[in-house]
Design brief:
Layout (H helix, E strand, L loop, with lengths): L2 E2 L2 H21 L5 E7 L3 H17 L2 E7 L5 H13 L5 E5 L5 H10 L11 H9 L8 H12 L8 E5 L6 H10 L3 E5 L6 H7 L2 E4 L17 E4 L3 E2 L5 E2 L4 H4 L5 E2 L7 H19 L5
Parallel strand pairs: 1-11, 2-3, 2-4, 5-6, 5-7, 7-8, 8-11
Antiparallel strand pairs: 9-10
Helix pairs in contact: 1-10, 2-10, 3-4, 6-7, 6-10
The protein binds NADP nicotinamide-adenine-dinucleotide phosphate.
NADP nicotinamide-adenine-dinucleotide phosphate binds next to helix 10.
């Protein structure tokens, strides 16, 4: 039976140390504060916002919400981002921007200063993930995969890791973070010739395809650690990952459940980046 890599203990451990850092900031008059800028009322956005707010409350991070209607103008959106940039009491910003006007969305992201870009929405932050130069925080989900592996004591140096998926939000950044930890990374996508073989060869498999049941028994091997980032709705209408859990679990040595795996760690990582940003923006005097 595989070891179940649950997210809750990882999030709890992270939250404990972050609460101490949040208190240390408060003791010197800095209230760590996250801005949430949401355009519209998309249910997925509201659900993530509410779980982020709960996590922030547990850790001692204040939240200021900036809510705009989908009918808002590009100018309103940009001036809200500018206000967040200018406000020294705000240390980071999470942005939900499902505007039909993609150029306005992109402009809003570009306007956010990298010091407050705690979920890697700007190209400058991505550049940091790829080059380790400049300022920036990796996307929270990609960083949550590394937190999971570290928490469960899974060494990365020299390991063969296969990442399925190459989006800028998860697949590519997680591959960069793994390489930065000296793993040997193979990236797979829809044009990969032998997906099952590439997956089986890995000691650690990270799957970020967003396809229920993609990773079946033929894609996993004994001794393997499987990190399933996918969040999908299965044929039975229930939430599931990319991995066919009943097929894979008896074969591999450790696996994340969905739900209750990586997703449970993402908001704790958001708070970690926010606290780091508050510390960086308010270095202790003397
Ligand atoms: P995305 O932009 O759709 O990217 C999916 C990637 O997977 C693409 O690179 C695609 O390859 C690849 N892919 C899709 N089907 C494949 C197949 N049959 N074989 C091989 N590769 C395949 O999705 P995303 O934004 O990265 O999100 C991925 C998943 O992670 C989704 O289920 C999403 O809900 C989930 N997610 C979870 C969290 C969390 O907190 N756990 C956070 C964010 C996202 P091509 O490049 O060739 O198209």
């Amino acid at each position: 039976m595989a070891m179940l890599l649950k997210g809750a203990p990882v999030a709890a451990a992270l939250s404990g140390s972050l609460a101490q850092r949040a208190q240390a900031l408060r003791d010197r008059g800095v209230v760590p504060t996250l801005a949430i800028l949401r355009v519209g009322e998309k249910p997925d956005d509201i659900a993530y916002e509410s779980s982020a707010m709960k996590r922030c409350a547990k850790i001692g991070v204040e939240v200021q919400r900036f809510l705009l209607p989908v009918s808002c103008s590009r100018e309103e959106l940009l001036s809200t981002v500018e206000a967040i940039n200018r406000d020294a009491a705000i240390h980071g910003c999470l942005m939900f921007r499902p505007l039909a006007d993609r150029a306005a969305n992109d402009a809003a992201c570009m306007r956010l200063v990298p010091e407050k870009d705690v979920d890697c929405m700007t190209p400058r932050s991505l550049a940091h993930v790829f080059t380790s130069k400049g300022v920036g925080y990796p996307p929270c989900t990609a960083a949550a995969c590394i937190e999971m592996l570290d928490h469960y004591g899974i060494a990365l140096e020299g390991k063969r890791v296969t990442v399925v998926g190459r989006s800028l939000v998860v697949g590519r950044p997680v591959a960069m973070l793994l390489q930065a930890r000296n793993a040997t990374v193979t990236m797979c996508h829809t044009r990969t010739q032998d997906l099952a073989g590439e997956c089986r060869r890995a000691e650690i498999l990270v799957t970020t395809a967003g396809k229920a049941g993609l990773i079946g028994a033929g894609c996993v091997s004994p001794g393997q650690v499987v990190i399933d980032v996918g969040i999908n709705v299965g044929p039975d209408g229930k939430l599931c990952g990319d991995v066919d859990f009943p097929q894979a679990e008896p074969i591999v040595s450790a696996i994340t459940p969905v739900p209750g795996g990586v997703g449970a760690v993402t908001t704790a990582v958001l708070c970690k980046h926010l606290i780091q940003a508050a510390e960086n923006l308010n270095p202790p005097c003397g």
